[in-house]
Each structure stands twice: as structure tokens, then as C-alpha cells.
Amino acid sequence: MSTDLLLARLSAAGLSPAAVRTADEGFAAVSGFATLADGREVFAKTLPEPASGLFASEAEGLGALRGAALGTPDVLHVSDELLVLSLLAPRPDTTAFWERLAGDVASLHTSTTHERFGWPHDGWLGAERQDNAWHDDGFAFFAECRVLRWLPEPRVQAKLEPVDQDALERLCAALPQLLPVRPACLTHGDFWMQNILATAAGLPAVIDPAVSYAWADVDLAHLWSTPRPPAAERFFAVYAEITGEQPGWTDRLAYVQLRQHLALMAMFDDDWGSTDAVRDLVRSFRRRP
């Protein structure tokens, strides 16, 4: 069914697909690799029920990241029904690759600082809306738009008892005591292993952004908190060298990863341990009887 849908959407867009094979990329979209009639190999994805602006937002994010010198695929076609990108290569998990990526991401974060947190309009994280309302205060932006915005979601309500929901709100109120003041900068917003690939020349490139001006730690926390190959440890060492992070800086990332944990809790019944992680983080913020 997935290849049939992609074939139909590619044909409707006038791209004349000769063949499509499915891909494992992403959780929200139907995706695959297509051979077009002119011989080009492309990556394409669609949704069974098109979401207005979702793919346009992704294309905009890719353009913003490319404008800041981070590698991305070319956008070949974008509509509410279909996104078509130039083909990237599998990621080489070598020390050199991860060191280069660290330099690219450090450059992204340090060259795009912004006076406010947010984005000119809301975006998407997977198939869910991302609240990008402008804020002057990073702590308020993170608490309201990246953490607490997920609390009303039905799955989150079912997974967290009221005592833990209250503790999460108390943790958010304490963020200025838990985290350093950091500037806003352009962030990928969904920066983990599956969204890191390579160009044909073997240089780092990224896909599936959920961009906004936010703390750099949003990107770092996601990569730090999810499985990665041994060579990726060099990413954090080189990033710290370039940006001047002090020893122990990764200790704070667990709090920033709350955003991704809550998102996974909201999107999926099986959330890869995110519910347990949130409960552990908020435990010390529970009110004493």
C-alpha cells in the first residue's frame, strides 16, 4: 500500500515514477526511494491524510539550515501531499565524520544567535504541531512551548498521574535554577541518529528538521540521550572544545530532553521508556505529603 500511495502522489505531481521501494525513514510519513522516468533517484514521502503546511515547513527548515552551512538534501518538490528530496548517502560512522559534524553544528549554533526564542510561525515535530510563539525569555519558551504544551495530550494525561503532572510544572518553574542562561540560536529541533546522513562526498547532512530559535541544548540533548555509535562520542568532545563548554556540561541535558520525552509520550503508546524517564526526572519535585 505504501508504494502504491507514493507512486500515485509522484504521478499526480508530474514526476513520472518508474519504480518505488519503501524506506524505513521516519515514524509519521510514508516514505520511499523512487526512480524517475528520467533516471534520477530521489527520496519521497507523503502522508495518508495530507497535513496543510507540514512539508512546506520541513522544506523551509532545510533551507534555513542550509543557509547556515549545514548539509541538507535539495528540495525537488513540495506540496501538502508530497515532499521530494535529492538522495543522500548512509552515514559513515567514523571518528572523522563525527568530528566534522561537531564543527558544523557548533558553527550553526554560534553563528545564528537571535534576540528572541521561537519562529515566525508554528511548525511540526513529526505529525504534531510545534508551538513556536515568540518569547523573550528562554526558560518561559522552553517550559510553555516545549514541555508543558504536551501535558493536555490524551496519552500524556493517561501516563502521568496528577502528582507527576504537578511535579513537572514545579520542575519547569525551577528551570532558571537548574539550567544556565543561554542565547537563542537556530536549532535543527529533531537531531538524532536517524536524521543524520551524508552527502555523496561523505560529508554530514541532516533531514527532518523541526527548526526554531531555541537553546542549542535542544539539539545536543536529543543526540546525547538516544543510542549512538562509539565514534559519536567525539562529537561531544569536539563540540565542547569549539564552544568552550565546561566539564560536566552534559549533566544538564537530561532536563532539556524532557521536551522529546513528552513528545514521544504524546505520539505513541509505546514511547521507548520516555514515561519512566519523565517520572524519574520529576520525582524530586513532587510535593511532600
From TrEMBL:
Keyword Kinase: yes
GO MF terms, alphabetically ordered: kinase activity
Superkingdom as given in the UniProt entry: Bacteria
Family annotation (SUPFAM superfamilies): Protein kinase-like (PK-like)
Keyword Kinase among record annotations: yes
Gene3D superfamilies assigned: 3.90.1200.10, Phosphorylase Kinase, domain 1
Keywords of this entry: Kinase, Transferase
Similarity section: Belongs to the fructosamine kinase family.
Name of the protein in question: Fructosamine-3-kinase
Source taxonomy: Bacteria, Bacillati, Actinomycetota, Actinomycetes, Motilibacterales
